Amino acid sequence: MSTGENDTIADETVGAPVENSSTNRKQPFPQGFLDTISTGWAERPETRPAPRAQAPYAQRRRAAVSAAFPGKRLVIPAGSLKQRSNDTDYVFRAHSAFAHLTGWASDAEPDSVLVFEPTTDGHDVTLYFRERADRTTTEFYADATVGEFWIGPRPSLAGVAADLQVATAHLDEFAPVDGELFLDEDEALTRFVSELRLIKDDFEIAEMRRAVGITAQGFDDIIRELPAAVAHARGERVVEGVFHRRAREDGNGEGYDTIAASGPHACYLHWTRNDGTVVPGDLILVDAGVEADSLYTADITRTLPVSGRFSEVQRRVYETVREAADAAFAAAKVGVRFRDVHAAAMTVIAARTAEWGLLPVTAEEALDADRGGQHRRYMVHGTSHHLGIDVHDCAQARREMYYDGILTPGMVFTIEPGLYFQIDDLTVPAELRGIGVRIEDDILMTEDGPVNLSADIPRTADEVEAWMARLQG
Ligand code: GLY
Ligand code: MN
Ligand code: MN
């Protein structure tokens, strides 16, 4: 909760011209409280944890940044709490570049700043953050935003230095200087740290596997709870809630808002309102990913027949999407361009929609770069994006490194074709209207080819039916 300056003024209850939530219910601290509150606390031993597993990886990432910007002072802020409404804030989420370069993730402190100070042969790197205040301060007991009495224990400079293996200093000692490069302001710095995440290191790959593994359990949970979703007037919310429980219990949360899209809602690509019913006979498209405590996230979509069995027409659409996904997977080879993966999926989508008589042109014409695209009405989104700390990772990378970039071992990206026939789309026969299917898997590129990190989550129509039968008994 953000209460601002006034909360640190312990004994002042009047003076603001307009009362608000930081003044209209504030109780004065009587002298007896003030005389005693700072005493009677046990000594807190200084804890110096062993370095976290990510520390040496983050150190190497910082070395790469340092080498790329000799002589420049670089500032990488973690970001601040963001107001949700009045005196409530969203849960703090550190900037992804900050988390990448520090290893400080779900436990990072708001307002922290990582600073690269140029030296004759590189940079001295210091992490500035608001160290916990001691118990003689008003911050301790009267500041609802950062006071330990309100939010619980906060870290010390020595503890974080040992944990992250980086020099630390109090935030009060950080002073901006002219000419330094700020993340998200300086284009070259912002691009560099984004492109630094295109190739994942061993720590990151392990975390991606962890995130996918918890997500797989979340999908199992959803299948077990589908009967409860059917029974509820807002069954999509049941699905969202079931996944949220898994994400919060075993991870940091969701890496993005869960899409629980039943029936025709599946055709709205980012349906997150999730207030619809879940009706037997329909499909439900669930796009959900657990973010681990390290902030690495999965991004998985499965489309399930609510009743446990696909109808003939649902199965035809589903297996076509799978055919597109398999074609994309087969195209994903070291040395090909990222966009070739998309092209492979779209070749299938164009061929099948043409075959079904949905296009006013041939599949070949639809695939023409300038005059085609008619098939994209039914799959308007891309097939792949990089995945990592951000669900859409490496967002500031140059196009030649991303869409036109070369697939390289260590890249992690999605393959997620779909087919969406809107409920009121007169270009498709009635039997297809209201059917939306997406299959999304998370892929690691290796020297030996692509590895589907989410291969353990059933994919084919037959596998999905068997999975549901098994979990629903
Ligand atoms: N969940 C968003 C996406 O698939 O890109
Ligand atoms: Mn995705
Ligand atoms: Mn997704």
Describe it:
This protein has helices spanning 31-36, 55-68, 96-102, 138-142, 148-151, 157-164, 187-195, 202-231, 235-250, 312-331, 338-355, 363-366, 461-472; strands at residues 74-77, 83-85, 88-89, 113-119, 122-129, 167-170, 181-182, 253-254, 259-262, 283-288, 290-291, 300-305, 412-415, 418-421, 435-438, 441-446, 449-452. The chain has 473 residues and is α+β, with helices and mostly antiparallel strands. It has two domains: 5-195, Creatinase/prolidase N-terminal domain (Creatine Amidinohydrolase, Chain A, domain 1); 202-472, Creatine Amidinohydrolase, CATH 3.90.230.10. The longest helix is centred in the middle third of the chain and has 30 residues, at 202-231.
What descriptors fit this protein?
single chain; 473 residues; alpha+beta; Creatine Amidinohydrolase, Chain A, domain 1; 5-stranded mixed β-sheet; 3-stranded antiparallel β-sheet; 13 helices; 17 strands; disordered N terminus; binds manganese (II) ion
How is the main sheet built? 5 strands, mixed
Question: How many strands?
Answer: 17
Looking at CATH, the homologous superfamily of the largest domain is Creatinase/methionine aminopeptidase superfamily
Please, what is the average pLDDT?
95
- Return Rg in Å: 26 Å
